[in-house]
Amino acid sequence: MKDSATRPAAVPVNDVPALSALPEWQQFKDAAETADRKGGTLRVIEAAGMSIDLSAQPHSDAFTEASHALLRVRNFKQMRRDLLEGGIVNHTEDRAAWHTMLREPSPTPEVAHERTRLLQFVQRADSERRWRHVLHIGIGGSDWGLRLTVAAFGYTGTWRDIRFVANIDGHAIEGGLSGLNPHETVVVIASKSFTTAETLENAQRALEWLRAAGVKYPERQLVAVTARPAIARKFGVPKDQIFPFWDWVGGRFSFWSSVCVSTALTVGTDVMAGMLAGAHSMDEHFRTAPIHRNAPVQLALAGVANRSVLGFSSLNVSVYDSRLFHLVPYLQQLEMESLGKSVTLAGEPVGVPTGPAVWGMPGTDAQHTFFQWLHQGDGAAVDFIVCQQADHRWPDHHQQLVANCLAQREALLRGKSYDEVLSEIGKTSDREYAEWLAKHKVYEGGRPSNLIVLPRLSPYTLGSLIALYEHKVFVQALIWGINPFDQWGVELGKTLTSQIRKDWQNMAEGKAVSAASHDVSTQHWLQRFAPPSVQQDI
Ligand code: F6P
After folding, report:
1. Which of 99, 121, 258, 522 gets the highest tally of CB atoms within 10 A of its CB?
2. Does position 7 have pLDDT exceeding 60, yes or no?
């Protein structure tokens, strides 16, 4: 963020009216409310190697027309251009959000240079057989994408293994270090800001661990990926092992930068190259496909209708591929950090509910966990994700998996009416009993979902899948009029954490702690959790 001296004097964006105030919104709302929700029309979009079936989403000619009008009034085409060409789209931080440049086949010279450096670094480490273990330290956007990749493609792994440490919970670093040979471990510290408390504390523990083990030059086993190379340098990371990226790469989009060094060292550089290619192909689809066949745009419109009109407050991600279990937290950060906002760029209330809560787990486990609620409880919009081809040797398992995925989606869409149930039960039970039991067996149906089909789980398809969600989120933010690239909501908690730690410090030094600075419950727990040496009233 620019400092106050260089901050623009005027509010940069004031032409983003609240969605609820737009006549185009009213038209969209009416159309969504009256649209077909029973899957009457087959709607499959082919995009970047994937097939995306929106048949189970609200659909009608009026809805299509209203969607186009809504995108027009929100200046979609110009905004898409701004995003893809590196214009300022993150207005509250006055910067671009140009992660698409990181996956360009012919990127800017600075991006190309860093890509080459990374490749050479990994190739050299491989040819010298340096390091058996990678300890990756980072959190949020500096973590989830790597976990996702390693879990998805770990089976292609090289001779190195990898551990991830994100949480400040000491059990995380304890588990991360346990069993590793310090003399053969490279510690990768990934942090855009290089100020994130969890990451710096864990990195410090790792450094102490290297020193304690008698490693002669522990700093030589450190690698940093950051937009603040000077701080990494101060931490002790050798200059040639610092991989910089840029302010215009948002933390939750930084996976496409050199942050992927840890996966390159473990599952290989080809995996990352494939993911970049897949993501780029989705970027191109997003840039060029007409609105009615533009997958991110159509997913976004359906998502807005589900959340802001039809009242589904959450999006369930049911991925029918157990290798993708980290996709849910990855998408939680992408969607909820981007869309968990309530004011427009102009600073006014949006006027309608915005980003849904995102949650889920792989199917079929999910079916035995929360699907009951999806079918007969409040319900959620659902994204079903499945691969056409599996990579194991039991074809029948895959057929069963796919059958489950298709069946759950059909059940949500079609439902089962009281009359249908009654006629089934009525054949074998007495009337009164059948009428009573039938009420418990009704499925409402008309519950919206997407079916996203990957031909196979490959780096290419995973890359395009992630980019699909990134662009969907961008379009939804555009419609809601919010900034998807900032995250001011995470700051207050960080400030209060520092305050609490400062209070404990003051207590330890016998200084007074202002009771008024906390609510009564926090005061109570501050006292109860105070370090053992400190027991005084606050
Ligand atoms: O959760 C807030 C956040 O800033 C995320 O946006 C980011 O991915 C994460 O913290 C880690 O930040 P950094 O990469 O700067 O350590």
Report:
1. 258
2. no
337 is catalytic: yes
The residue among 228, 257, 274 that closes a domain is 274
Number of domains, the chain? 3
pLDDT confidence tier of residue 510, bands split at 50, 70 and 90? confident
Whether ligand 1 lies within 6 angstroms of the CB of 356 is answered as no
Whole-number Å distance between alpha carbons of 121 and 495 = 37
Peptide bond into 266 cis (omega under 30): no
Mean pLDDT of 99-126: 97
Q: Whose CA is nearest to atom 9 of ligand 1?
A: 140
Catalytic residue among 114, 198, 337, 470: 337
Residue 3 has pLDDT above 50, yes or no: no
One-letter amino acid at 482 equals I
Does ligand 1 lie within 6 Å of residue 251's CB atom?
A: yes
Which is catalytic among the residues 171, 216, 239, 368? 368
Residues 38 and 103 in one domain: no
Domain membership flag for residue 268: yes
User: Cα of 524 to ligand 1 centre, how many Å?
Assistant: 30
Decide whether any atom of ligand 1 lies within 6 Å of the 252 Cβ: yes
Q: With DSSP H G I counted as helix, E B as strand and the rest as coil, what are the percentages for the chain, rounded to 5?
A: 55, 15, 35
- CA 349 vs. chain centroid, Å, equals 24
Neighbouring-strand partners of residue 243: 225
Catalytic residue (choose from 494, 502, 511, 524): 494
Residue 5 has pLDDT above 60, yes or no: no
Q: Who contacts 182 (Cβ-Cβ below 8 Å, separation ≥6)?
A: 209, 210, 212, 213, 215
CA gap 142, 226 in Å, rounded: 9
For residue 368, indicate whether it is catalytic.
Answer: yes
Ligand 1 midpoint to CA 141 (Å): 6
142 C-beta closer than 6 A to ligand 1: yes
Residues 6 or more apart whose CB falls under 8 angstroms from that of 101 comprise 86, 107, 108, 111, 248
Q: Relative to the CA of 337, which ligand 1 atom is closest?
A: 6
Helix axes 269-288, 295-304, angle to 10 degrees: 70
User: What is the DSSP secondary-structure string of 243-304?
Assistant: EE--TTS-GGGGGGTGGGHHHHHHT-HHHHHHHHHHHHHHHHHHHHS-GGG-HHHHHHHHHH
Ligand 1 contact via 39 beta carbon (within 6 Å) = no
Told to judge if 335 belongs to the known catalytic residues of this protein, a careful annotator would answer no
Weakest-pLDDT range from 124-138, 471-485, 515-529 = 515-529
Residues 501, 478: one domain? no
Nearest CA to ligand 1 atom 2: 490
Residue 4: pLDDT band (50, 70, 90) is very low
521 in a structural domain: yes
Which whole number is the average pLDDT over 20-38? 96
Are 236 and 220 within one domain? yes
End-of-domain residue from the set 274, 290, 305: 274
Asked if 361 contacts 31 with a C-beta cutoff of 8 angstroms, the reply is no
